[in-house]
Amino acid sequence: MQGQPNPYSPPQHPPQQGYPQQGYPQQGYPQQAAVDLPRMLRIAKNQRAIMLCILAQIAVASVGFFVPIPALVLGGLSLVVGIASIVFTVTLARVLYSMAGVIICIAMLLIPFAAMFLSPEASEVMPLVSLLTLLVVNQRATKELKGAGFKVGLLGGDPADVEAHMRAAAR
What we know:
This protein is an all-alpha fold.
């Protein structure tokens, strides 16, 4: 039995010429297609703004939990950060998706605001819909940036990195 191959193991294929076996194209390997750098810059800037809005939402919620702040002030801060995250998410969705995807994204982001007025019980669960929408759009942006060969960290892609590639390409 030791000399026979395992019938449950995946088939072994030879690696393709010029590309690494796994992951994205790496330095020294040919790129698959030309990268639209202005588009990547818009994606990186909007993704960074969305991630900062998420951190601001966490900060507002944490401050409201630990520090006695009037509910009107806390609600106003939450509303401003929520509107900013909607604007940046829709702007990013316009770059990543078709118009139908943008309309669905807007609807999914606005459902929690409508639920606040319709049912207090639903307003507790509905922010998860917005959070899932943010995560889906953010995941697509991360995939696009990584596919183009850019590093993506905790705050998304670095717009300065994309701008450096644009300056290098302009030479």
